[in-house]
Write a structure and sequence with these properties.
Layout lengths: L1 H20 L4 E12 L3 E12 L2 H21 L7 E2 L4 E9 L4 E18 L5 H11 L4 E6 L2 H29 L7 E6 L3 E3 L4 E5 L6 H5 L4 H4 L5 E12 L1
Antiparallel strand pairs: 1-10, 2-5, 2-6, 3-5, 4-5, 6-9, 7-10, 8-10
Length: 241
């Protein structure tokens, strides 16, 4: 009986060894890709604030100021749907009193950024710049970013390039190792990511501190040249060999 059990064990072990020795190998390669694009979206952001000792009055003043800024652009032919306000905040302001040697209440301050989002080729970009520098006494920023259309287009291109890169690497490795590539066993995909500046941002001074620029004719879109934004992705592919 013991001999029969021992013989069966040897047969099972031998079968397992045979299966392992005949199992196909796998080659796993990471494909990488990179694409650079000039950003097409432009955001003009005006940062303004109002102050008051009364909270309600501060809130009302900020709404009036925001409405005033929107009307300035709309009345000068800027499309209303381009004008956005994504945040609103009111905070208590205190200042240090040297006589009391402590901070004392000074009032309330509301901060509201108003943003106009356009395309780089929007025909009224220079008009927007003129309106800001000639009429609004506040700091403002120009921000360049990739458009949604650019993001979708570059995603497909990145995938194609990464797959081609993985195939090329796998082919070279297989040839060097004197084996043949078989079926694809698995694919792992990484979402595209930005490298370097996520956007190109330029903070501009108040118009009254730039007498030359204030007096000159604005041509902001031809003067500024934003850096290209680099997008990368990677794809890991496994082949049978």
């Amino acid at each position: 009986m013991k001999k029969i059990i021992l013989s069966l064990a040897i047969i099972v072990f031998a079968f397992g060894s045979f299966a392992q020795n005949n199992q196909g190998g796998i080659i796993t390669v990471e494909g990488k890709s990179s694409v650079k694009l000039a950003p097409e979206d432009i955001s003009f952001t005006v940062n303004f604030s109002v102050k008051s000792e009364n909270y309600k009055e501060c809130a009302e003043m900020s709404v009036e100021k925001m409405d005033e800024i929107k009307k300035l652009f709309i009345e000068n032919g800027i499309d209303e749907e381009l004008i956005k306000t994504n945040s609103f905040s009111i905070r208590e302001v205190q200042k240090y009193d040297p006589e009391l040697r402590q901070s004392v209440f000074e009032g309330y301050e509301a901060n509201i950024p108003v943003t106009i989002r356009t395309k780089k080729d929007y025909e009224k970009n220079d008009k927007i710049f003129e309106l800001i520098k000639d009429n609004l006494q506040s700091n403002f920023n120009l921000n360049f970013a990739l458009s949604e259309e650019q993001m979708e287009t570059v995603k497909e291109k990145l995938i194609q390039l990464a797959v081609e890169d993985a195939k090329q690497k796998a082919t070279v490795i297989a040839k060097s190792a004197e084996v043949k590539l078989g079926k694809i066993k698995s694919i792992q995909y990484g979402e595209p990511r930005m490298v370097g500046p996520y956007n190109t941002n330029m903070e501009l001074m108040r118009a009254e501190s730039m007498p030359v620029m204030s007096a000159a004719k604005a041509d902001i879109t031809s003067v500024l040249s934003p850096d290209e934004i680099e997008m990368r992705t990677n794809i890991v592919i496994a082949w049978e060999i």
